[in-house]
Each structure stands twice: as structure tokens, then as C-alpha cells.
């Protein structure tokens, strides 16, 4: 991306059942060396009856982003989120490098929702490789990988994952193996302690045993810090197959 210019971004997406009313708002940030800078988008909101438009593969949204000339000339990321008036994330994706010819990499392919009654915030992105819509399929006899992007709200010296599974009216702990109970060891390109406002990716590896029954369930993840406070939390609909 060239500084001092505007770049048009077009995206086609499906809503996965979320409301697609005519009021859509979006927000984008440049991420440079772990520092987020809010980007200027035109238009900043979509509030007409013809938006979003219909594309060949689904709903279509287009906007221009201004590349501030004061940004340093270094490689970075651009993260973009599109939400409806209920605050539900319809689309989020990432440009992995500041290059005009770069291909858009879908970054948030599955909708995650906040667990009722928790104080934690939703991740900035959740990616289950191979899953483009919920419920995600979790094959027996394999580990299910879930990539969770979040921003540290304070200094984090420890991180502990707490996973639960809900099915048939029951909620039970999903006990991770010992080598996966320290989330600091499963950060991608980062390590604890984490600094405030640092953008981080956590890789959750869920063992799906061959002995598990085939069923539909909701997987809930909470990341807890050194004070046992919730750093981030979400729920994901899935099927064990």
C-alpha cells in the first residue's frame, strides 16, 4: 500500500444466519510492530436499502481506506471488521502485508459469540482452519485447531485456558493434556509476559478422541490471567463427526 493514497477493498461474504439489515458499520486498524492505529474508511457506515449488494458468491461490500502518509514505511497488517446494528461481526479479514498486490486473507471465518454472564471480551478474530461456517466439524481421532486473536488489556504474565463443552443440556469441562494447559507456550510469534495493547494469536489444540460419540455441541473457551480474570472468551458451535 502506498502512503498518501486511498485503496479500494471489495469483499464478498455470507452472514451465517446473522442479521444483514441495511445498517452496517465497519472499523479497520493498521497493526505495525504490535501497535494498532485506526484507519480512515469511506464510507464509514452503510445505511441505505441497497446495502449490502448482492455479489456472485454472496453479499458484497466495498469501501475505500486511506493510507496515512505519516505511517512508517514498514511491513504490517490491516485488520477490518464489519458489524450489523446488533454488534454482531459479519465479516473480519486481514491483509497480511502492506502491498498493493496482496491477496486478502480471510481471517475470521466463523462467528464467535460471547458467553452470557462473563466479563471477558470477544477475540478480535477466531479461525478454525477448514471451517467456513458454523457448526464446525470436529473429526474424531484428530486434534481440532482453533486460532484465537486477542489484544492484551494489561500486562499478562500467565495465561491459562479453560475449555467447556455443552450438549444435551449438560456442560462439562474439556480437560486439555498437561502440555497444553499453559497458554503462554501456545502463543504464535509472542511470549509471556505480554504488554498492554499487544496483539496476540493463541493456538488452541483440542483433542477429539475416537471414542467420543457423534453429537452437536458448543465449545466454550476462556483465557484466564495471573489474577484469574478473564482475558477473552467465546463460544463456538461444532459437530463431532
UniProtKB/TrEMBL annotation:
UniProt subcellular location: Secreted
Alphabetically ordered keywords of this record: Disulfide bond, Secreted, Signal
CDD domains: Npc2_like
Bilayer-spanning residue ranges: none
Gene3D superfamilies reported for this sequence: 2.60.40.770
UniProt cross-references to InterPro entries, sorted A to Z: Ig_E-set, ML_dom, ML_Npc2-like, NPC2-like
Domain MD-2-related lipid-recognition: 107-238
Key word Secreted present: yes
Gene Ontology molecular-function annotations: sterol binding
Record-linked Pfam families: E1_DerP2_DerF2
GO-annotated biological processes: intracellular cholesterol transport
GO cellular component terms, A-Z: extracellular region
Superkingdom as given in the UniProt entry: Eukaryota
Alphabetical list of SMART domains matching this protein: ML
Family, as annotated: Belongs to the NPC2 family.
Protein name as it appears in the record: MD-2-related lipid-recognition domain-containing protein
Amino acid at each position: 500500500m502506498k502512503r498518501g493514497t486511498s485503496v479500494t477493498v471489495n469483499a464478498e461474504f455470507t452472514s451465517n444466519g446473522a442479521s444483514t439489515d441495511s445498517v452496517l458499520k465497519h472499523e479497520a486498524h493498521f497493526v505495525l510492530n504490535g501497535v494498532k492505529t485506526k484507519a480512515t474508511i469511506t464510507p464509514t457506515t452503510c445505511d441505505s436499502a441497497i446495502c449490502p449488494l448482492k455479489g456472485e458468491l454472496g453479499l458484497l461490500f466495498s469501501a475505500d481506506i486511506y493510507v496515512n502518509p505519516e505511517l512508517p514505511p514498514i511491513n504490517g497488517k490491516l485488520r477490518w471488521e464489519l458489524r450489523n446494528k446488533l454488534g454482531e461481526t459479519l465479516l473480519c479479514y486481514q491483509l497480511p502485508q502492506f502491498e498493493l498486490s496482496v491477496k486478502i486473507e480471510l481471517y475470521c471465518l466463523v462467528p464467535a459469540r460471547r458467553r452470557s454472564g462473563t466479563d471477558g471480551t470477544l477475540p478480535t478474530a477466531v479461525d478454525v482452519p477448514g471451517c467456513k461456517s458454523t457448526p464446525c466439524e470436529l473429526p474424531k481421532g484428530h486434534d481440532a485447531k482453533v486460532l484465537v486473536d486477542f489484544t492484551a488489556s494489561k500486562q499478562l504474565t500467565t495465561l491459562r485456558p479453560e475449555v467447556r463443552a455443552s450438549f444435551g443440556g449438560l456442560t462439562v469441562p474439556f480437560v486439555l493434556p498437561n502440555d497444553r494447559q499453559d497458554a503462554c507456550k501456545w502463543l504464535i510469534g509472542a511470549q509471556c509476559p505480554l504488554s498492554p495493547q499487544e496483539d496476540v494469536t493463541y493456538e488452541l489444540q483440542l483433542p477429539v478422541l475416537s471414542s467420543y460419540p457423534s453429537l452437536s455441541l458448543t465449545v466454550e473457551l476462556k483465557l484466564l490471567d495471573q489474577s484469574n480474570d478473564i482475558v477473552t472468551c467465546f463460544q463456538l458451535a461444532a459437530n463431532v463427526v
